[in-house]
Amino acid sequence: MKVFCLGGAGNICREAVLDLVQHSEFEQITIGDFNEEEGRKVVAWLGDPRVDFVHVNVRDHADTVRKMRGYDIVMDGTTITLNGLTTAAIAEAGCHGINLNGFGEENASDAIFRENEKTCLPGFGMTPGLTQMMAMHAANQLDEVDEVRVSHGSFRPIAFSKSITETTTYEYDPTLPGRIVYENGVFIQVPPFARPREIDLPAPYGKTVQYIIPHAETKTLAQALSAKGVKLIEVRGTWPQKNMELVKSLYDYGFLRNDKITVGETTIGILDCISQYLYNSSEGKETELYGYSLHIEVTGTREGRQVRHILYHTHPASDGSLEGWEKLRAYTRNVGIPMAIATELIAKGEVKKTGVITPEEAFDPAIIFAELAKRQIVIHEEITELAAQS
Fold it and tell me: For labelling alongside 368, which of 247, 299, 341, 377 has CA 20 to 30 A away?
C-alpha cells in the first residue's frame, strides 16, 4: 500500500505521518508539501526508508493529480480553504481520500469518487471524527436518542500555524452560514458565542464555558440518528481562556467582519492584520496548558428507562513526563493520530461504502477506540439511569 500525505510538513499532519511510520503497514509514505524545506526536515526527522518527499502546489491541479496517481490513499492535512481544490485532485487521481476538516467542499467531488469506486472521508481527526465515534457508541446502546451534546476543549496557542489561525477566525466569522444547532427536526442558525454552557472536563482542564461552533457533527449525527428520533444536537467548543477572551473582544468590536482598512498606501482586512501579528508573536504561539479534551453527552431511552451516557477521553500529559507528548505535541498528536488510524483502515479496504461519506458510515467505534488505546489515548464512559419525570 502507498499513502500520499498532502500537507505532511504541517504541525498536525506530521504527527499523523509519524503514526503511520510507527504503526501502519504502508510500504511507501510520501510527504507532499509546498514547503520543501520543512518537508525534507520531516523526512529526516522520521528517518524511515519508506518515507520520501514530493514538492506539490495544489493550485496546479494537473500536476497535483499527476503526482498523486498510483497511491492507494491521500491523507490530506491542508487547510479548510484548500479542501475543495485538494479533494478534486484526489478524486481525479483515482485515490481514496481523507482530511481533518469536513466543512462540505468535498461534496462536489462525490460523483467522481463513486465512479472510481473510491471512498472520501472528510473530517476525521478529534473533532469532527472521534466525536462522532463516541456519540454513536452511546447511541447504539439506546432504543431512542433524545439529545446529543458534543463538546471539546482545544488547548493550544491561538496561532501556532497559519492553518490554525485560519480555523480560529473561520469558526467565529459572524457571516458564516454553518453555525447551526439541530432542534426538533430543523437546523437553526445561531450567532457566534451562542448558547453558553459549562462543561466539566477531566483534569487538568476543569470547568469551561463553551459556545456553539460550526462543525460537521451537527449534520452528520442528525442524519445518522434520524431513525432513533433525535430531537437536539449541539456542538460546542473552547480554546484556552485567554484565547476566548480575545476572540470575544474581537467579535464585540466588529474586527471579525474583517473590514478593509488603509494603512499608508496598503489596503488590508483588519482581521488579516491581527492574524498576521498573532502568527508572528510569542503571544500567538504560546499557552499555559496544552492538550485536547472531548466530552460527549447522549441521553435517551433503553427498555423504557431514561439513560444518560457521558464519554470523555484522556491522553498523556504535556508536562514532559512522557517523551513525544511535550507541550504542543499533546495537542497535535491528539488530532493527527485518529486521521492516521482511519487512513490505514480505508486503504486496507475496511470501509466498503464509496463516494463522500461521514464518519458514522465508515467505522465501528470499538475498532477506533481499540487503536487509540494502543497509543495511550483512552475513551472513558459513564452511564447513569435518570429519574422518571412526573
Answer: 299
Instruction: Return the C-alpha cell found at 189.
Output: 442558525
* Ordered DSSP codes for 140-207: TT-SEEEEEEEEEEEES-TTSSHHHHHHHHHHT-TT-TT-EEEETTEEEE--TT-S-EEEEETTTTEE
Distance CA 96, CA 210 (A): 35
d(CA 113, CA 15): 27
Q: Are 345 and 26 in contact (CB under 8 A)?
A: no
Kindly indicate the confidence band of residue 160, based on its pLDDT and cuts at 50, 70 and 90: confident
Instruction: Identify the H or E element spanning 5.
Output: strand 2-6
Q: Are 362 and 39 in contact (CB under 8 A)?
A: no
What's the gap between Cα 83 and its chain centre?
A: 13
Contact 110, 356 (CB under 8 A): yes
Query: For the segment 245-287, what is each residue's pLDDT rounded down to a tens digit?
Result: 999 999 999 999 999 999 899 999 999 899 889 999 999 999 9
Q: Could you give the CA distance from residue 114 to residue 318 in angstroms, rounded to a whole number?
A: 42
For the whole model, what pTM was predicted?
A: 0.94
Q: Are 296 and 134 in contact (CB under 8 A)?
A: yes
Query: Residue 345: which H helix or E strand, with range?
Result: helix 329-347
Cα–Cα dist 382/368, whole Å: 19
Looking at residue 311, its amino acid is: L
Q: Which residues contact 242 (CB under 8 A, 6 or more apart)?
A: 287
Q: Half-sphere exposure of 229 toward its Cβ, with a 13 Å CA cutoff? A: 8
Per residue in 218-245, is it b (16+ CB within 10 Å) or e — as a string? bbbbbebbeeeebbebbbbbbbbeebbe
The set of cell numbers assigned to 105 is 467542499
d(CA 158, CA 207): 20
